[in-house]
Amino acid sequence: MRLIGLGLAAALLAGCSADTERDEAERNDAGSSTSVPAQVADDARPFEIEEVATFDDPWAMTFLPGSGDLLVTERSGTLYLRDADSGDSVEVDGVPDVAVAGQGGLGDIVTGPTFEDDGTVYLSWVEADGGVSGAVVGRARLETEAGSASLQGLEVVWRQPKVSGNGHFSHRLAVAPDGEHLFVSSGDRQKKSPAQDTSTTLGKIVRLTLDGEPAPGNPLADEGGDAADIWSWGHRNVLGLEHAADGTLWASEMGPEGGDELNLVEAGSNYGWPEASNGSDYGGGEIPDHTDGDGFVAPTASWTPSISPGSLMIYTGDLFADWTGDAFLGALSGEGLVHVDLDGTTAGDDEIFEMGERIRAVEQGPDGAIWLLEDAGSGRLLRLTPA
Ligand SMILES: [Ca+2]
């Protein structure tokens, strides 16, 4: 394990190519140790960028099977449907009231496995009750007519415990390739210790049935209560949750000061927060790094200083033929797109394409193009295609 000194980190961020090469060499020797992604010069990017549209503080997007139309959430509580043919976006009616504060608001949206038959979508948002709040997951049917769209039959299927504060909701959604399970990331709500407490779903990834019930076969099913929802624990703030083509589940996790993580998520595994992290507490309090034999699962890749991964996509297309099977993370403070070479469950080199803005979301389009959403009041929707 190795932490990069601030001097080297600053030099890397300033774009010193010699230091970047040195870091590459060290990382290759050091396996999963924490690192800085290699910077790719703008003129060496293998893609060109098309500006498609803008949204107001967009948070998530998902392409619809069949049509290729795009749903985009805005954190303030608006959902848009963008028509793939015309490029026009319409506001979707029937979105629930959301509590907008801090990191909270309208969150993720994904299509259910039966979407093409019945329009089922799952979405997440923050619900407040007096002085406490928590994420919820709802299910509805997306209905479209010429020029309009709405959510029908909305029902809440899962609730995160409500506590004080407005951070670390996580509330990222992923429907399993088996078509039978819904995974939800549930952040530690900045309370830290609940992540190691298996009687609460804070600081966890949960696995639910499509109706939001604890999925049969979950690792702590015998404990009952909220424990029966839990798939994995020791998580801080998982803002990226995505299955690879082979069915493995990956998560990107915001570390504290440093120690951002890419994790292979497996049933019953403990990812260490807040007992182990390659980062440190804000203000300098040390947290033991991940080490062999500490009882926690170490990240497949981690980054210090922070890149702040706000999203994760595992590329399954062939438009970018060299990237099939690789991981892409939208970096908020890193203001770029991070590419991690994945070979099965092993991470190789990683690199960052600087975009000049905080990147909130990354998705793969129907044709294999890579789409990004900027995290800004007038955040651009960008389409990346081979140069
Ligand atoms: Ca540490």
From TrEMBL:
Domain of life: Bacteria
Family matches, as SUPFAM superfamilies: Soluble quinoprotein glucose dehydrogenase
The Glucose/Sorbosone dehydrogenase domain, residue ranges: 55-383
Pfam family, one: GSDH
Official protein name in the record: PQQ-dependent sugar dehydrogenase
UniProt-listed Gene3D superfamilies: TolB, C-terminal domain (2.120.10.30)
